[in-house]
Structure formats: C-alpha cells, structure tokens
Specification:
Elements: H1 3-10, H2 14-50, E1 54-58, H3 63-77, E2 82-85, H4 88-91, E3 99-102, H5 104-113, E4 119-124, H6 126-135, E5 140-144, H7 149-159, E6 165-170, H8 179-184, E7 191-196, H9 200-213, E8 216-218, H10 231-240, E9 244-246, H11 250-255, E10 259-262, H12 265-282, E11 295-298, H13 300-305, H14 313-332
C-alpha cells in the first residue's frame, strides 16, 4: 500500500486532518512561547548574578593590615559589593572594575600597571595623592590617612591651653605644606612660623630657633624632616628645652612625640564603603575626603617626664572637635 492510500484510510475526512493540524500548531506555538519565557527569565537571573558588584583590593604587603582593612570594608559593604584580592595578572586586563589600594606603594603599583582603572586609595596622605585626585577627578579618589594639621595644632592647644605660638620645621620644598594651616590659626588664638632646614647641618640650629619661638613643635607629614634618621635628635633637642612634639602620626607617639590625632580604621572603612557604592551608582568616585571622627594617641611616659598633666584621650579629642565646630558655626553666621 502506498503512503497516499494510508493517509486516506487514516483520515477519510480532510477537515479532520486540517483541524488536528491546527491544534498541533497552536500547541507547538504555545510550547515554544513558554520555553522562550523560561529562557528570558533564566537569562535575567543569570544577568543579575553575573552583574554582582565586585571590587578588587591591592594590598600593602602587610598581611595583617590588609586582612584587617578588608574585614572592616566587608562589614561596611555587607552583600552590596564583593571584594576580591587583586593579582598581578589581573591588573592589565581589568577595565572598569574599581580597585581599593591600601597604602601609597599599592596605589603606585596599580597606576603603573593600568592607568585606566578607577582607584580608591586608603592609608595615604593628602600630600601624596592630591595631584592624582585633581588630575583624574572621579577616577581616582581617597580617604585621607593623615590628620589635618589644624586638628593637630588644636590637639597641642588643648594639652597646653596657655599656648599661643606653634613652631614648624620644614625644607624649602615642603614649606608649602604648612601654608594653609598658618591662615587657619588666628580664630583659635594661635600663630605659627616656619623655620627652614634644607640640610643635616641646618637641622638642629633651625630646630633650636623654632623651639625658642613656639610653645610646642608641630610635625606634618614631611619625610625630609621627620624620618627615622632625624627623629631621635629632634626629640632630644626638644625635650632638653622642655618643649613637646605634636604629630605627625601614632607611630611617632610611640617613638616619643607627646600626642597625635588619628582617624580610627572603622571610620575610614565607612567612608571608603560609601565612596565605593557611589562609584557603582554613578560611575565616578566622590571627591577625596578626611574622616569626620578622630581620636588622640598620647605618650604618658613623655608627659610624666615633662610634668605635663594629661586629660583623658577621649576628652582631648572631643575638646578639639568642639573648637572646630564652634568656629565653623561662627564663620557660617
């Protein structure tokens, strides 16, 4: 029997064949539509998963420090952003993924390998990063690590309420570091003067003149002056004249400076998380910023040696903040 005859026997009514064919076509069309819908929904889900916000951390090389910073950032970010360690092989191939650089060495390493990457720098001083954040606004930003010099000066003022003069020691190249501070001091009953020391031979003579002028010596983040080679001579010379050193950081307080303001890590992590979220939302980083909260580290042994009564650290930090807030309110009126 030929195939045409079989068709006729199975479907003697041509209308029946047409109806069944139509129903089959509709069923097939519905099935294809449902499969397409499932595919689209699956694609959207996959897209959401693949669109998870990721940022990379370029470490400082200090494993304990890097782990601490990463943990604080993760706590602040929650499930909004996934943090991953940055490997050297990834540096050249990443495009728009933001990188968090911990410290100046990590920042320089990232910039040298890939100048197009958006970078948020942590644990860097304003003097180090400001040129980059100015030239590459939105692409490079930072949470400053150094305490503002005004806050450091007021830390000295709170410890020595009778102080009216601040001595500053700098090189010809670093003197501009202190220029903004000099203009800020008058409302607080302070004045400052910079003494220049460009060579090792000039260091101690200039320091002695500075100590004769000021009620205390204020140190900025100036590696040409305040470095491991010089700090012992600076401290001994100052304390022999019963003068104190304020700043430039916690590390120098441990070395013998009387006190220094500093930003707690948790505060810096909170700001960094905010900058990172802002980048994902807008495609650019907010401007670099100082933290709002600061604490004070003090060297009690130095205070006892110089017979300086020291208030509680929390009280000093709050007193400094109150002075700044009151002056800002008066300036805004």
């Amino acid at each position: 029997m030929e195939w045409a005859s079989c068709q006729t026997m199975l479907n003697p009514n041509g209308n029946v064949t047409t109806g069944r064919t139509l129903k089959l076509a509709r069923f097939t069309s519905m099935l294809v539509w449902l499969m397409a819908l499932l595919f689209v929904n699956s694609g959207l889900a996959l897209g959401q998963e693949s669109g998870t916000r990721s940022a990379y951390i370029a470490g400082s090389g200090n494993a304990a420090l890097d782990d601490h910073v990463a943990r604080l950032l993760t706590e602040q970010l929650g499930d909004q952003v996934t943090l991953e360690p940055l490997t050297e092989s990834q540096l050249a191939v990443l495009e728009n993924e933001p990188v968090i650089a911990i410290g100046p060495a990590a920042f320089s390493r990232v910039r040298q390998a890939n100048r197009d990457l958006p970078v948020l720098a942590l644990l860097v001083d304003k003097d180090f990063i400001e040129g980059y954040t100015t030239r590459f606004s939105g692409q490079v930003s930072a949470v400053y690590y150094d305490a503002p010099l005004l806050r450091q000066a007021l830390t000295g003022k709170v410890i020595l309420p009778q102080a009216t003069r601040v001595a500053l020691l700098a090189t010809t190249e670093s003197v501009e570091l202190y220029e903004p501070l000099i203009d800020q001091l008058a409302p607080y009953g302070l004045e400052a003067k910079v003494f220049i020391a460009d060579t090792e031979d000039q260091l101690i003579p200039s320091l002695i003149r500075a100590l004769s002028f000021g009620d205390f010596l204020l140190a900025g983040q100036d590696d040409a002056i305040y470095n491991p080679r010089n700090i012992k001579h600076i401290l001994l010379t100052a304390y022999r004249r019963n003068k104190i050193l304020i700043g430039p950081s916690q590390a120098y307080v441990k070395a013998g400076a009387l006190a220094s303001s500093y930003a707690p890590f948790i505060e810096m992590a909170e700001l960094a998380a905010g900058h990172l979220i802002a980048y994902f939302d807008s495609g650019t980083f907010p401007a670099p910023t100082y933290p709002d909260e600061y604490r004070v580290e003090v060297n009690q042994q130095v205070a006892r040696s110089l017979n300086i009564p020291m208030p509680e650290r929390e009280w000093i930090a709050q007193a400094v903040q109150n002075m700044i807030s009151e002056n800002n309110q008066e300036a805004g009126q």
